Amino acid sequence: MDRQNSDDIMRFLDGMASSDDVLFGFLDEGNQSPEDFNLNGGSDTDDVDNNSNCTSEENKVFWHEQEQLLQGTVYRTSSIETKIRQATKEALKQVKSKGLHCVCRRPVAGGCRSCLRGEISRHLRDVAGYDCVISKSKWRSSQDIPAGEHEYIEIVDRSDSKKGEMRVVIELSFRAEFEIAKCGEDYKRLISRLPEVYVGKTDRLRSLIKILCIAGKKCLRDNKMHMGPWRKHKYMQAKWLGTCERSNSLGAAVTETTEPENWVPRAKPRVSMLNYDGLLGSLSTGMGRHAAVTVV
């Protein structure tokens, strides 16, 4: 369910100010990491066969490479992403100071994740002045993945006429989307490098999804665990990169498609049924730590 009790929400908001680097996990300005990898090409990661019989040294090399790939993707950012990230921090601070009131049909004391997204979206639109909406993606089942839906915050920036329109995704529980129960230490360490809250362009997000799905597949295979279809690359892409309906608090909506294959528009808004484990609770556990990756 897309709901959460007030205790977890307030623990998240209370911990927010203690370490923004851990919460958002990005370095400012567009300085490129020494490890600049192209992750947009290549085959679908669902078809990649990671050899589960590789040696200990090969395993070490694989996980080191994945960490370098992730670092080179996450720990750099453009100026517009930095501005939106700062505005998101301010929005979260406003929620903390004013409190969160749930307006759902069955209200949750202290607010729920859906209401938190709505408050942040309104602040970014009405106070910060961004074209900010709630985006809802929905996709049909196929031979590879089951049907599903997901909700996230999105900003469309048109400030640079030369570069044209740019989508910036804000996912409040980004790390939790890739967590695996009983995973190995290598995967756990890789996931710890992720920001709790993702604020970034879609091409950066596409690269991160590919890195994490390759790593997740190897983790499950090495531990002889079944890979559920909801962990597949295509399924994770569908959450943020497929057909979505963009709506503001006034109820206006428009359907947009980023990658049309295998996705269809939403017929009508529905409450997300995704598990809300760890959005704010997991954030609270990481606020006291220093950023896990140092970039020079």
Low-confidence stretches: 27-43, 250-255, 259-296
| Approximate helicity band | 25-40%
**Topology, number of strands:** 6
Number of helices: 9
Strand order of the largest sheet: 4-3-2-1-5-6
Count of domains: 1
Distance between the terminal alpha carbons, to the nearest Å?
41 Å
Average pLDDT for all residues: 75
- Structural class computed from helices and strand pairing: alpha+beta
Secondary-structure element sequence? HHHHHEEEHEHHEEH
Largest sheet: 6 strands, antiparallel
Shape assignment: globular
Radius of gyration, CA atoms, in whole angstroms: 19 Å
Determine the strand fraction and express it as a percent band.
5-15%
Helix and strand topology:
Layout: H1 6-15, H2 20-24, H3 56-74, H4 79-98, H5 113-127, E1 132-139, E2 148-157, E3 166-171, H6 185-192, E4 198-201, H7 202-222, H8 233-241, E5 244-247, E6 253-256, H9 279-286
Antiparallel strand pairs: 1-2, 1-5, 2-3, 3-4, 5-6
Helix pairs in contact: 1-9, 3-7, 4-5, 6-7, 7-8
Can you tell me about this structure?
This protein is α+β, with helices and mostly antiparallel strands and 296 residues long. The chain has one domain. 39% of the residues lie in helices and 12% in strands. It contains nine helices and six strands, in the order αααααβββαβααββα. Strands 4-3-2-1-5-6 form a six-stranded antiparallel β-sheet. Helix 1 runs parallel beside helix 9 and helix 6 runs antiparallel to helix 7. The longest helix has 21 residues. It is globular and about 55 Å long. The protein starts with 5 loop residues before the first helix and ends in a 10-residue tail after the last helix.
